[in-house]
């Protein structure tokens, strides 16, 4: 696959606006400011395919991208405290609707967690949701470059207790700065593409 051929398709801010699934989809999920846009740009080898913002909660829509026969869905970040109740309800309807819509062909969810910190309650709720809905997912530990060797080893060890069923999960440390994990994530995408 030539990952740099990925193209932006469309953005939708309400569940009712989402078009039907046109093929297998891979979603990116994670809390606000976890680095979803940076990961998408590194994965596709593009500087500004996904807009990166230093302001949490900037992405308020599901942004769709396409590459060959796969659709990629960048879900808005969760857990940002400074949003209104109505905005949280809109998010729940949009993302919950997308992920639980049995008509969508969701092949995988990349669940992003900031490697520097224990998973938040929202992270754990999302993982439980994915398990309960039998959605396949990979845990991507972002900002891996921010930890030294000892800190990194300690966080990886702590995650074994913090994430239930850790031994059964695929966990990929990732850095948008050093490209760590990019190759592994591309391999996972290519495996899914072969199944289409």
Query: Which structural class fits the helix and strand makeup?
Result: alpha/beta
Q: Report the helical percentage.
A: 25-40%
CATH topology, which one?
Rossmann fold
The major sheet is characterized as:
7 strands, mixed
| Low-pLDDT residue spans | none
Structure, described:
This protein has 196 residues and is an alpha/beta fold. The protein has one domain (3-195): P-loop containing nucleotide triphosphate hydrolases (Rossmann fold). It has helices at 36-43, 85-100, 121-132, 149-162, 182-195; strands at 7-12, 25-30, 62-67, 70-74, 106-114, 137-142, 171-173. Strands 1-3-4-2-5-6-7 form a seven-stranded mixed sheet, with helices on both faces. A hairpin with a 2-residue loop joins strand 3 (62-67) and strand 4 (70-74). The longest helix is centred in the middle third of the chain and has 16 residues, at 85-100. The two termini are 13 Å apart.
Question: Outline of this structure?
Answer:
The protein is an alpha/beta fold and 196 residues long. Helix content is 33%, strand content 21%.
